[in-house]
Every structure is written in C-alpha cells, then in structure tokens.
Backbone:
C-alpha cells in the first residue's frame, strides 16, 4: 500500500483554515471535535531551560486502541491495519485493529464507517485479555489518554478483512519493529502489553 499512494502537503495561512476558530490562546474546531491547539506556559526545575511557552495538542476525548486476536490454524494472529496519520514519515504505518477517538464515532452511521469498532465497543468482558487506560507522551500532547485493549475473538469472527487489514502473527509483527516507520507507537504499546501478559501467565 505504501507503493500505491502518495501524500501531497501544502501550507496555508492560519486565517484560511475552514471549520476552525482562532482564539486568543487556542485554535479549536467549530463543532468541538478532534482536538485543540492550546498555549501552555511551562516551568520545571533541573533543566537547562527552566521555563518556556509553546503550543501543544489537547485531545478533547480519550481514544481507544485495540488489537483483535484470533487463533488461525492453531497460531494466534493479530488483525493489523495500514493506517494513514498526520506526520507519518512514509505515508502508512501498521496500527492496531481499531485506533480512534471514540467520540467521533458516537452514532450508528459513523460506527459503520470504521471497521471493527462496534465489535470492540460491545465485546463481552471475558474476551478481553488486557484493558488499561494509558497516558501518552506529554511533550506534544496535553493529558492524552488511550484505552488499550487486547481482545481474543471467537471462531465466529470472520477471517476475511477489508483491503487495508491483514492477519499477522506476533513474530511477523516483531520482525517489522526492527525497522523504522512500519509499526506505529500505539501498536508498539499494545505489543509491550502482550509481552507483559505472556511473562506473567
């Protein structure tokens, strides 16, 4: 998929942004969706610079990152998606089965647009192998938290996938971790949870 698509980016002045409002200390979406860019004044000890001001991204809701796992021919497979995100160095990266801000998909119509989200949000508790609310890196994001899930699907979960999804074994995924710009940070965080679970069983 990296070879099939190109990304073209152009800069525009902030005043030409559509559907966004520029306030004194923030830039926000007109419908209060997605995120805000806010101004922060930082003071900290024991650093070469003790205080500074900067813009930072403030998510408006918690996100959800989930890997669906299924046993195929006796081997556990992870359902991986090829996902485009702003800032990707090489167009697409491998991501968890579901990665989104759930508030953006809070109705039936929009849920149907994102594969597997409804399954993840309605799965029975006994199918959840791991469930943790994790704070993300604070240098770029203001109080961002994601619910991280590992979910084991049953025999009735379909093997067929949309074009940008694929089943991969844990060893196959770990092989790609050795190279830059293939596995995104959300997937790597969940894979760390997989290792933790295996070591503590």
Residues:
């Amino acid at each position: 998929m990296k070879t099939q698509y190109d990304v073209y980016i152009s800069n525009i002045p902030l005043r030409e942004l559509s559907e966004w409002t520029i306030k004194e200390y923030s830039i926000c979406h007109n419908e209060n969706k997605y995120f805000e860019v806010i101004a922060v004044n930082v003071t900290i000890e024991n650093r070469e610079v003790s205080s500074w001001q900067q813009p930072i991204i403030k998510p408006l809701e918690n996100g959800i990152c989930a890997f669906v796992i299924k046993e195929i021919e006796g081997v556990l497979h992870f359902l991986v998606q090829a996902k485009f995100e702003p800032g990707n160095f090489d167009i697409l990266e491998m991501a968890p089965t579901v990665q989104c801000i759930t508030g953006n998909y809070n109705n039936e119509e929009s849920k149907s647009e994102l594969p597997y989200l409804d399954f993840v949000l309605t799965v029975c508790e006994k199918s959840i192998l791991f469930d943790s609310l994790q704070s993300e890196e604070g240098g770029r994001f203001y109080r961002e938290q994601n619910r991280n899930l590992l979910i084991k699907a049953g025999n009735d979960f379909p093997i067929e996938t949309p074009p940008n999804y694929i089943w991969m074994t844990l060893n196959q995924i770990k092989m790609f971790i050795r190279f830059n710009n293939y596995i995104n940070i959300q997937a790597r965080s969940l894979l760390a949870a997989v290792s933790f679970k295996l070591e503590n069983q």
Observations:
- The radius of gyration is 19 Å.
- The mean pLDDT is 89.
